[in-house]
User: Fold this.
Amino acid sequence: MSFLSVDLALRVGNSGRPVILIHHYGFESFSVDGQWWTAAQRLAYWNVIAPYNITAIFTGHLHPGPNVTDSLERFVSWNRPSGATGGPASIPTFVAGAARSSAYLDVQLNNANQLRVQVRDQQGNITGTRCYVRPTPIWMAPTAPLYGRGWKDDPYDSFAAAMNAAGSRINDATCNSPVADIRVKPGHYAGAVRLATPSRLTLDGTGAARVGP
Assistant:
């Protein structure tokens, strides 16, 4: 826990970059109800990772196969535990196993923070799919040199560039369009941009701008 706390602070900080964690015990009933780790331990873990953009957690321990009946606990949303100091309402978690059961996960993450996780059997057939969309932090800076870089080489110098970066899609009908959180650095911006689709832009006292459908 001490290592994780320091590592996230030093290597991720406030960049908003997606973080994927991988460890053994999961959040399905076999790990939780079996007390392989306690509620207090999970709460302490949550409080360490809550300030960061935790896109997914992959675990092992359980060995589900590729069939639907084997995969009922493969996709688990870890809801914010009681007593948590912050963080999202939930974090998607996935049981990655098991090779010995002829099953594996095919995972894609794009620069709109869309996560697609598919269960495949040993022939590569897809037996289950889940897609998740998280708000995408995009930074904008008015002048060069650019401020500290974040996810996918932002900040950008125009709303057009930021919207383009946030608008990529996973080519899968089960994934919805993402929402972009565009955060603006103080300064002067030249020019204007016409948005291709109806959008909403709101500013608050922190200098955060939100663009959405």
Notes: Residues 143-150 have pLDDT under 50 and may be disordered. The first helix runs from residue 2 to 11. The two ends are 39 Å apart (CA to CA).
